[in-house]
Each structure stands twice: as C-alpha cells, then as structure tokens.
C-alpha cells in the first residue's frame, strides 16, 4: 500500500508526513544527546591527558630523586623516606588517573548505547522516506550519515579508552608493587627497584670522571710539551753558533747537521708557548 | 662501568613506559575525537539546513 504525504495509513502501519517529521526530530534529539556525551568525553579526555603527562613528569622526577639517594653508598633513611613519600603520592595520583580513564570509557560506552538505540530508527526512517516521502529523504539521509560518523568514532575511540584504562591500572599496580618491595627501606631492595638509575648515575659519574681525567691528562701533556719545548730551546741555545738568533721557528739548522747540507733549515721549533 | 648500567630495572621502567603508552593512546584518542567532532559540527549544520529546507517546503 502506498503511503500518501499528509494522509494517514488506514491500517495504522505507515506514518503520516507529520509522523515522519516527529521521527526525524526524535532521532535528531538522540544524536544530539550522543554528541553532548561526546563533548563530555572530550572534557574528560582533556583532564585525563593532563593527569597522564603530570604522572610522566612525576615518575621522571621520582627516578632522579631516587638516583640521587643511590649515589650514597649508605643512603640515609630520611632520604629514602622522601622518595617513598613521593612514590606514594604518585600511586594516589595514578589511582585518580585510572578513575578518570574509567569515566571516559564509561562515557563512550554510554554514547554507544545511545547510538545503538538510534540505529534501527534511522534505518526504518530511511526506508520509509526513500520509498514514500522524498521530501524528508534528504533529512533522513543526513541523519543516517551523522549516525554512521558518530558510530564509527565511538567504535574507534572505545578500544583506545579501554587500553588507556588498562595501562594506567598496570602502571599503578607496578608502582604499588615496586614500592611495597622497598617498603622495608633497606638499601639493597631500594637499589633493586631503582636499579636503572644507579647505572645511569654511575655512568654519568664515570663520564664526568673521565672528562676530568682527560682534562687533567691534557694538562699534563701540555706541561710535558712545554717542558720539552723548554728543553729543546735550551739545547738549541747551547748548540747555536755564536751570534745566531735562538729559537726562531724554521730558522735553526739541525743541531748536528747530520744528513743535511750546511745551511739547510731544520724542522720548526716545537709548538708551544713562546719562551 | 657496571654490567647492569644498560639493564632496565623491572619495576620503575615498566611504570614509566606504561604511563607513556597510556599517554600516547590518549593523544591518539584526543586527535580522533577532535577530528570526528569537527566533522560532526559540519554535518550537524548541514542537517539543520536540510531540516530547515524541508520545513520551508
């Protein structure tokens, strides 16, 4: 049976044009509510991202604070307690961050339920309008496209939010478990947990030591060169002919004159400060 | 150099890398939301115009 715009279906199976308009409005409202939920998800995402970045900074600071303690062969109890307190602070922050991630995940799931509710209505409306009400077909097609876009978004976003929740939980548990292990505040267990920092600091310290040694070595070498230069200059001065200007680079003949024609300039004076 | 200088500690390295993975996923999620909702704004505006056009008729 054909549905006529403005008319009513005698069997009550097909909506009239005003009925279709109401359906359009209902579906539009559901999609707008879904969009409101997604806007809430965006706000929650912003807070979550800020918390995660803060947690990353806290973890890095904590690592370095712990590493400083580990520089001591016998770290003090107060120093270790300070690190432990910072660790407990981070545990609390991660717990709250986990709650934020769960809230975001819940919001996306709620949005999904909304969209799932709208999906059959949109399918039905699209079918009705394409067959019987071309005037509303464009509006129905737009709603269908919007529904599809939001559904795709939620389908992609939900697993990501689930991953974030899971990872924050893992980080929380790993930190909690690790700090429980060092709870007895013994230096050995402390080092075990913060082992990488000990290595990093040892490396940094060795590099600094090597650099100092290199500078010292260069200094010694410079002294040695200077001493050689002095010695060479004295030697040259002692060997120079009478009236010969000493220590002029490139202007002094070979001391013994061996293997050189008389008057051939010898090698230049060694590099070094002027004497 | 100690032999363990390049060996990651099992706990704190796990904590930090896990937080960084979560941050990376969150950033990806934010990009996705921003792009899709910007497109939805356009779509909604078009739908509003379409509804108005229908209403005008």
Q: Whole-number radius of gyration of chain B?
A: 24 Å
Q: Based on helices, strands and strand pairing, what is the structural class of chain A?
A: mainly alpha
Query: What are the secondary-structure elements of chain A, in order, as H or E?
Result: HHHHH
Terminal-residue CA separation of chain B: 82 Å
Largest sheet of chain B: none
Oligomer: heterodimer
Largest sheet of chain A: none
Shape of chain A: elongated
* Unreliable stretches covering 5 or more consecutive residues of chain A: 1-13, 246-275
**In total, how many beta strands of chain B?**
0
Number of strands of chain A: 0
Query: How much helix is in the residues of chain B?
Result: over 70%
Strand % of chain A is under 5%
Tally of individual helices of chain B = 1
Which two chains form the greatest contact, residue counts included?
Answer: A-B, 62 and 42 residues
Task: Considering the chains and any ligands shown, give keywords for the structure.
heterodimer, A: 275 residues, mainly alpha, 5 helices, elongated, disordered N terminus, disordered C terminus, B: 57 residues, 1 helix, rod-shaped
């Amino acid at each position: 049976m054909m549905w006529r715009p403005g008319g009513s279906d005698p069997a009550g199976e097909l909506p009239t044009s005003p009925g279709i308009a109401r359906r359009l409005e209902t579906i539009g409202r559901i999609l707008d509510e879904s969009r409101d939920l997604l806007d809430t998800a965006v706000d929650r995402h912003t807070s979550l991202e800020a918390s995660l970045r803060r947690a990353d900074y806290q973890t890095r600071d904590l690592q370095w604070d712990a590493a400083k303690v580990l520089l001591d062969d016998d770290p003090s109890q107060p120093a270790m307690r300070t690190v432990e307190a910072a660790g407990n602070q981070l545990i609390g922050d991660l717990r709250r961050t986990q709650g934020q991630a769960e809230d975001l995940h819940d919001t996306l799931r709620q949005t999904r339920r909304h969209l799932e509710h709208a999906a059959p209505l949109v399918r039905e409306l699209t079918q009705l309008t394409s067959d019987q009400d071309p005037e509303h077909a464009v509006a129905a097609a737009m709603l269908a496209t919007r529904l599809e876009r939001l559904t795709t978004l939620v389908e992609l976003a939900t697993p990501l939010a689930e991953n974030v929740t899971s990872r924050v939980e893992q980080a929380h548990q790993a930190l909690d478990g690790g700090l429980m292990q060092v709870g007895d505040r013994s230096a050995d267990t402390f080092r075990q947990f913060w082992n990488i920092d000990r290595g990093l600091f040892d490396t940094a310290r060795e590099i600094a030591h090597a650099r100092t040694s290199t500078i010292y070595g260069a200094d010694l070498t410079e002294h040695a060169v200077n001493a050689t230069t002095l010695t060479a200059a004295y030697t040259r001065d002692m060997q120079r002919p009478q009236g010969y200007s000493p220590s002029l680079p490139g202007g002094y003949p070979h001391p013994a004159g061996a293997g050189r024609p008389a008057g051939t300039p010898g090698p230049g004076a060694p590099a070094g400060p002027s004497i | 150099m100690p032999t363990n200088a390049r060996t990651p500690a099992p706990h704190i390295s796990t904590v930090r890398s896990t937080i960084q993975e979560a941050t990376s996923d969150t950033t990806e999620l934010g990009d996705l939301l921003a792009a899709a909702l910007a497109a939805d704004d356009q779509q909604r505006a078009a739908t509003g115009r379409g509804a108005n056009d229908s209403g005008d008729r």
